[in-house]
Amino acid sequence: MVNVLLCGCCGFMGRMICECASTYEDVNIVAGVDINDDGQRKFPVYKAIENVSAPVDVIIDFSHPSLLDGVLEFAEKHHVPAVLATTGLSEEQKRKIAKASENVPLFFTANMSIGINVISELVKNAVSVLGLDYDIEIVEKHHRRKLDAPSGTALMLADAAASVREVPSEYIYDRHSVRKPRSVNDIGISAVRGGTIVGEHDVIFAGEDEVITISHSAGSRKVFAVGAIRAALFISGKDNGLYDMSALIKESMK
Ligand SMILES: NC(=O)c1ccc[n+]([C@@H]2O[C@H](COP(=O)([O-])OP(=O)(O)OC[C@H]3O[C@@H](n4cnc5c(N)ncnc54)[C@H](O)[C@@H]3O)[C@@H](O)[C@H]2O)c1
Predict the structure, then answer these.
(1) Residues at CB less than 6 angstroms from ligand 1
(2) What is the pTM of this model?
(3) Res 75: pLDDT
(4) Domain 2-112+221-253 classified CATH 3.40.50.300?
């Protein structure tokens, strides 16, 4: 049995994790952390992570960047592996995660769905074949409540494309601010916010007289919740280090 500490347990994703975890026999949420307790959880909810006293095997965090330091401190102090799913982290925070992973196993990805991680590989393959003749633009769409823009997933897809391009890439978020044609170095990233869109990502390759689009659409938050629970099971008992969805996919293919 894997005992989970769920950070952000009363938010949209936290509630979805609770719903999905109840279908796993080997996963038990023993405590939660949330500054806004909805009073509906079946486990104790703490306002501050440092006050959690229940013995836990793994942390799942879908909360807010302001909780990251607390999560990392708790994980390192008690040597508890953590699945870090909160987005909108700064570069400094990402460096802290890499440093902390020297002392505790951490699983970090901007997108917990298996499908997005598959299209990330497709994007790399497409860039290798299409080269610099095709301009890359990424368009992402999310619900009206989302705090960060562009999404962590859009940046993850841009990083995947940039990692195999033959020229240095520059991410362009605000074409309205300059009047000039796009450069070969550009990867354009645009964000749409509205309604209840769960998460849509299009990677557009625009060439001469031809456009190729690689798309992913999440139908519900369940895909992220299932991915996070699988990540929690995957990381329990692993050696210290930084893991992501590609490591999980590789292991499940063995
Ligand atoms: N990696 C992924 O696949 C993935 C998928 C969906 C959402 N997310 C990210 O997960 C995060 C949560 O998303 P959501 O839609 O559930 O948001 P939400 O606003 O519905 O839930 C966040 C919860 O965290 C709590 N919270 C905020 N700050 C806190 C703090 N300092 N300490 C304790 N609790 C705190 C809030 O009270 C709230 O209940 C966001 O960053 C979102 O972008 C990641």
Answers:
(1) 8, 10-14, 33-36, 62-64, 66-67, 85-88, 109-112, 224
(2) 0.90
(3) 98
(4) no
